[in-house]
Design a protein that fits this description.
InterPro entries: DUF1684 (IPR012467). This protein is an alpha+beta fold. It has helices spanning about 10-40, 45-60, 70-75; strands spanning about 85-90, 100, 105-110, 115-120, 125-130. It contains three helices and five strands, in the order H-H-H-E-E-E-E-E.
Length: about 170
């Protein structure tokens, strides 16, 4: 538990430090969640783990992008049911624009139109892309977060009925 027993700029510095530490904790928990997902050889069960973990973070964590009284904290984020048709292998070097980012749970960052996919494994020759794990960036819920934009190579001409849905 944190408390502020000082006033003035020292108090502001303490609040900023608490915020920084909770953001680090958020990132660690997200990385742990994706490690659990990648370790499960059953994609549908891994999807259920992902949904429960994201709902818990969005409901309880101080860095949740949901406002304090948002009903989604109680109901959970709306997500399509798992559909194996949205899971595919992408040959390395082809198809979509993909970035490797440490801060995204040591996975790949694949911004697709208005959602993000997560790297769920693969081989030396291919990457597994599963759009069932697509989610809205935090800026969808809170303007203090910055929104990534999908590059032209990731704008799809089909509706993706997988992953997180708009409420």
């Amino acid at each position: 538990m944190w408390s502020l027993a000082v006033r003035g700029t020292a108090a502001v510095a303490s609040v900023d430090r608490v915020s920084e530490l909770s953001l680090v904790d958020w990132r660690v928990r997200v990385a742990d969640l994706y490690a659990q997902v990648r370790a499960d050889d059953d994609p549908a069960r891994a999807h259920a783990t992902w949904r429960a973990g994201r709902d818990r973070l969005f409901r309880e964590h101080p860095q949740s992008p949901l406002p304090a009284h948002d009903p989604l904290r109680e109901t959970g984020l709306p997500v399509w049911e798992y559909d194996p048709a949205w899971r595919f292998e992408l040959p390395r070097g082809g198809g979509l624009d993909v970035w490797s980012l440490h801060q995204y749970g040591d996975g790949l960052f694949v911004p697709v139109k208005d959602a993000k996919g997560a790297w769920l494994g693969g081989s030396d020759d291919a990457v597994v892309v599963d759009l069932n794990f697509a989610y809205h960036p935090s800026c969808r819920y809170d303007p203090r977060w910055r929104c990534p934009l999908a590059p032209p190579g990731n704008v799809l001409d089909v509706e993706v009925r997988a992953g997180e849905r708009l409420p």
